[in-house]
Request: fold
Amino acid sequence: MRGRSIIAAAALCTLAVAGCGSNSSSSTTAAGGGSKSCVAQIAIEGPLTGPVAVLGQEQLHFAELALKLDNAANKTKITLDQGDTQLNPAQATTVTQQLTANSKIVGVVGPAGSQEVEAVGPLMARAGLAFISGSATNVTLTQGKYPTFFRVVSNDRVQGANDANYIVNTLKPKAVMIVDDQEVYSTGLVGFMTPILKAAGIKVDHESVSQKVTDFSSLVAKVTPATSVVILPWQVASNAQRLGHDLAQQHKKAVIFGTDGLFSPGTFEIAGSYVSAFGPDITAIPADAALVTAAKKYGSFGTFGPPIFAATHVIDEAIASVCKAGQTPSRANVLAAIKQTNEPTSILGQPISFDSHGDNAHGKFFLFKISSAGKYQLVG
Reply:
């Protein structure tokens, strides 16, 4: 996490010395190879409106920031189309059909949710279009079904084990309630966490509720005095906030433990709760200081934006490398270049390279606890 951010360095060099470019192994100071222009079109799929629009807008802003800095550093002319999925697989399918029909688009950032990747993966594969998510973490996504899919964050096998072991070893509950929200992301995490909890002798009450439910009083009524932790592998932070209020109204003392989908400062802020995250708090990484300053013009942000910055940067660098080789960017050569990504560090404070399945070989998860002031504090 102490490594210098590639793009921060590139941005600062651009300001200080004309022609100074990224120091990534795949970048170039003149991506087009002299006077030749490097022009390409990419797109982002995200929940730009709807119940988690605050996260989608954060992702969009970080994609725009990465594109701006990369274009300046690499002398490229890459533009960004926008596709609003609303975290809905059906909507994501419609958006993807539109994107794949546009032959000018050579890479896609997103979509955000694992259920969306499941919906659009076959369409992207048939089109030969590379897409990189900064937040879809279900393990099955990189088991060969979607050969053009990549992610810059780790998967739920890592998250599930990390979270469950922290609960076992640090919180030491006798009984927990774990509640899925009937989406593939959620049920997958339940599957990884439950065996670890049960193996430790913890009583597990597994409940299920739709993402569309907003009254959790009946669910909270099932929380027994012995249940000291309520585990929420959810994607809608406002729902977790409501459940936290319902716990308080019924005088239940159980601590909420949320997975990465609930990392949303300002929306989910129940004091004493825990939230895991696939990305670090970049405000705590000294090498990212210039990026933090640049990003603040969009307002406050959490951990959903920086991985999208990283994903956009990977595509931008792939395009730059194609142009440097004297080729015109296409879906095929950009996909091939993405597979060769080997960044020694990134905005996330860790390297990025992909294994043969599209997983980031260096991904990991982080754990935060919410203070009485609603601040997310790193604890693991």
Observations:
- Residues 53-74 form the longest helix (22 residues).
- Confidence is low (pLDDT under 50) at residues 1-30.
- The first strand starts at residue 38 and ends at 46.
